[in-house]
Amino acid sequence: MDHADEDIIPYDKPRGSVASELLAKHLRSKQPESQQICVVLGAILEVLDGEGMEATPTALFAAIMSSLSSKASSGKSQQSPQICAAMGTILSATLSRVPEAVLRSKFAASSEILCCLVEEHAEQASPLKPMLSCLATVTAAVDPREWASAVRPFGLLLGLSLDERPKVRKRAQEGVVGVLAAVQGTSAAEAAGSAIARACQQVLPGPEVAARAAAAASSKKRTEAEAAISKAVTDALRLLGLLKPALPLMPGARVQEVVGLMLNLYVLRQPMLSRSATECLAALCARSSSISAAALVDLLRSVVHMDTAWDAKDPASLISLINLVVSGYIRLHDLDATAAAERLPHAFHAVVPQLTGDLEGVRFAAEEALKCLIAACLDDAAVAAAVNLAGAGMGASAGPPSAAAGVVASVAGALDPRTQDAWPSALSVSAVLFERLGRRGARLAEPLLERVGELCATAAEAAQEADEEEGEEGAAGVPYAGAAAAAMSSALRNLGPEDVLQVLPLNLEEGMEGRGEARTWLLPMLHQHVSKARLAFWGGTLLPLARSMGSIARDPANPHALACRALEAQLWHSLPAFASWPEDTATAFPAHAKEVATAFINRTDLHATICTALYRLCTQNRDVLKAAGQAEGLGYAEGLAAPSQGDESDVEDEGQGFASEAPDSYTPAMARQNVMVLRGFSKNWLKVLADAFCATQPGLRGPIGRAISAYAAISDPAVLTPFLKDALGKYVELTQAAQADVPPAASVVQGGGSTPSEQRCTFLELSLALAGGLNTDCIKLLFTTAKGAMQERDQAVQKRAYKLLAYITAKRRDFTLPNLREVMETLLGGVTSSLSAAKRYRLACLQAAVLLLLSPDAPDVDLRGKEDASMSVEEQRKQVVATLVSEIVLCVKEVNQKTRAAAYGLLVDLGQAMHEADPPSLPSLDTHMEGLDLKGGSASGGGGLATLFDMVLGGLVGTSPHMISASVMALARLLHQFATELGGVAPTLLPAVLMLLRTKSREVVKSVLGFVKVCAVRLPVDVLEQHMAQILEGLLLWSEDSKNKFRLKVRVIVERLARKCGYDAVAGAMPPGDKRLLIHIRRENLRKQRLRSDEAGSQMDEEDDGRSRAQGARTARGSTWNHTKVFSEGGSEGAPTRAGRTLSKRSGPAAGQRGQLRPGQSVKQGESRAVLASSANGDPMDLLDAGATRQMQRASGAGPRRSADDYARGSDGRMIIQDEDAPPGVKRKRRAGGGFDDRLSDDSDFDDLRHIGGLAAGMRSASAKSVALAQTVATNARTARTSRPGGGSARSVGGRTSVGGRSNATAKGRQHSGDRFKSKGKAGGDQKGGSKVEPYAYWPLDRKMLNRRPSKKADAREGLDSVVKAARAGAAKGSKAKRHRAK
């Protein structure tokens, strides 16, 4: 459009009007149609301006219709189709905003004009499309009482709905649907529906008529007949496309006529027609449809009994038909649930055969459809009606079966041997059906349950045969084994074990006698899947069966004794499952308690099973009462206080936890009754359990301890007191005997262990197990005992003492708060006497004590001593808390890994708890941290987390490097966890911590480097850039120090900073003299990128995908705390330099030792072992790939490394490491400087090399780490003695002798050339001499052999040729001598 045209368009119209929107849409477009619209719109606006009218939608409508009317009145339009298309587009956008009253008043004239224009431009799509939209809008505004005037426009729309032009057809169909929606529910709806029904009567029978005509036509008219069929099918498909949105809007009577015509299309077996008809029927079944329940019943009856449709071979048609049945029955259930339930078996009979379909998509659709029908239509009312019908004795002879019975019969029929392909899907449907039937409908599920049981038995037999044959042939023949097991497990959970075993009895005795088939495969399922069953059923049915199996097992002459022993154990193992939420505990437990207790006493192998059952019975009833707020008088434990909790000897039993929640029928009143019954047996059961606890090995006491804790929590404290006093009395006797000057000749106490230490630990653990139900007086006695045991030097006893104290401090505030002063004094006094092994449990005490002192309900207890009389109570309390926190901080430096982890976890838990208990009053902690005082104290408003941070921060001014280092490590952990809350600490804390890099203590420097690494990971970029100069200044002080790998650590941190903040930011803050390090890092990263980019093809894509996944995993793992990665001496996080070497060459093993580890020799921490491997396709492995490490580990088969805590320790705390290679009774000799001398081992090469002068001195040299390196040291020493004065070794770097470097080939060749076996005189042959090995000679591999240059290869072959030549000469001489002797 040129500028002249733009000038005639007024732009001052109000925004939001139709004209403004059209101009905004088309004004800048270069399309001719858009330009034409702008011109026409400008002309119309100019006319309106001339008339002084505003460009409202009504005015635009009147102006456009006036113009169109004047053109139509002349009988022939004088305008071009382009102008008509433009006017139609403007009118279409205007009509949607014209009031309906205006359109209805001008309907007759407007519809007449538009009909004339549609008929006039029927062959021109450009003007026809907007005119159809206008005609549809006007027709939708007709008065329903004057529908006769709308017959012509509606007929035009309906006729053009079959137009061959897609866009025209789409506009016409949208118009028809819009008119139907506008007149729905009015008198005009019947007329409009009748028009559509007449069109259907004319079009839909067309394909069948054309097909019959083609069948009767002669061969000469075959082409015309096929063309007629194609046109009839095309018209039918176009009309079905209209019916899909229009059919739900039509009246019911007209809908039935159209549905009948569509059902006739299935007879033709034309896939496209069938699919389109199914989609139309599915739309009719949608929730937005107004179809009645009776009409929907007739429709579904016709669909499910239409054999021609279900026999189709087209998978898309079958899937759409299955979806139609599902949507139809769900809609029918919403309209009439009873009718849907009655007709449900018919749907199953139609869909179930599709489970045997050839295509997986059809089978999957049928399976999901059956599940949806069960979930939506088989409701509780239908199941109840079926149960009532079955209970009344009405079977097939009395009338038709119930809906649920029919569904069960249909699914059971799919498990027939003739339909094996349908078994996996049918079993999955069976599992859902069992869940829907529930315990109420268990009787209805009997036919299906029998079929499922047969399949499970077949799968079990096949698995047994496969095990016997040690192959997988049997397992491969039962692909339904998993589905069958899932269906049976669903039956056990939902139908209940009683009904399942009634239909499928175990028949254990009958199977042994040959009178039936034993269903032993059910026993593991009872243990895994039973819940909410009756405990009386187990005691009345399974317990006698277990006794019977046990009696047979005790007869050694019986051939089935071994099998009966296993069956008895499986029957007993099902007891915990029946103890999960049984509602008959009050009646069943007293009936079988004595028998179960007798078995517990006589059978140690049943301890874990029976204890798990007791634990569940006690815990779940207490949990129900606690949730209802009725747990008063049921113990003080806030959970399980297991005696072995957190200990290394914990052994979890596999059946401890119960996953299900309490059922709705499990009421608090029932739980209270159950608890009262269990309490009545507490004295007897606790006696039995306590005796078993003392008689069991420590590693197997876990289940018994949990059972004692659970039973004690619901018992009367008066019952527990004698048990506690007895246990503590025995402990006191053992303690007195251990402290006596003359130890007693015999043990003063029987049971509890083989040594006095084990016995004392046993009785302390037993006391802890009883603590959950003790009253305050007994807790006082327990606290006194623990207080004395804290001073013991036996680490095992001290550990149990701290576990007791931790429980009392954390769980029993009823005792701790009144005796807070004594508890605090006990904790503070145990600092000096606590052993390293007990630190982890002492930390739990400290955590509870700190939280108790900082809690709002803590009492005002005077903790001051005589020397602190001038301090206030609050100040003294803060000082005590700071002392406890300081001890926690020091524990992060403990040697024990678990203790360190516990200290870190305790810091985080304290910070979280204090932050939640006392959130900051300021908007963030940043404001508080700006005024932080490094000497302690802080401004008010910082909250609990700031208080903890201040306490830890005070350690930076400690007097010992150990304390300073521990404080820095603790600060790093807190900053790592609470980076968001403590983000403002960096401006104040970073400079102070970086100043510690100037200290001479390497311990402190190591911690500071770890702290800076945490800052580089967790702090935001802007904070790091602000302090970049200070960070680099402190780091680069240690960039040249390779001891403790500080040089590598600095490089790792600098690289992290560069990756996060950018190389330019780091380079700008780095001193010019140290920029070489950054240049080297950047060069190495660029080199890695080039290597990745050089990879080509699909291999590169796969490796990049794997590398990106590995990097994502590293990022996720990097967000969690790892003490080793942050503070370790190794550079595990550093990027390797060229050829995989780290920055410090001294960090790895010596060059002569790399990659040459003897069998059984371990790799030390910080050293790397080079492992060369190849990928699966034989190509060299890319060692830069993140997955290469995992692949090499899998290839090498290396097992996990043993930590320091895995070794036994002596009484002094030192590790005891046994030498597996040393012969019995022989100790390895220790070198003077530490370590052992391996020269006496059987696999040592020292005997072979004794003739080498100076070898012993070489072995004692600090540079020699192996026999091979000792040879080099000895050779270099002899060379140095014979060389000129002042001369160094053959190889030196920077004036320093490199004894660990690679020696030349000739030196190694002389060591193993065989010269030492030559005879000293004139005799020929070899002499063994003083060596213990047979004469040999070999030439070591030389890397020059791989050189491309021929001259280099020749040099390498010279020495090898000499060895081969000498061997040949010796062989020839020997052969000659042999021939001479033969003569």
From TrEMBL:
Signal peptide range: none
Residues covered by the RRP12 HEAT domain: 361-693
Biased amino acid composition, Basic and acidic residues: 1202-1212, 1236-1246, 1312-1331
Highest taxon of source: Eukaryota
Location relative to the cell: Nucleus
Entry keyword set: Nucleus
Tagged with keyword Nucleus: yes
Bias type Low complexity, positions: 1290-1303
Region (Disordered): 641-664, 1089-1246, 1275-1361
Classification via InterPro entries: ARM-like, ARM-type_fold, HEAT_RRP12, HEAT_RRP12_N, RRP12
Family to which the UniProt record says this protein belongs: Belongs to the RRP12 family.
PANTHER family: ARM REPEAT SUPERFAMILY PROTEIN
Protein name per the record: Ribosomal RNA-processing protein 12-like conserved domain-containing protein
Organism expressing this protein natively: Coccomyxa subellipsoidea
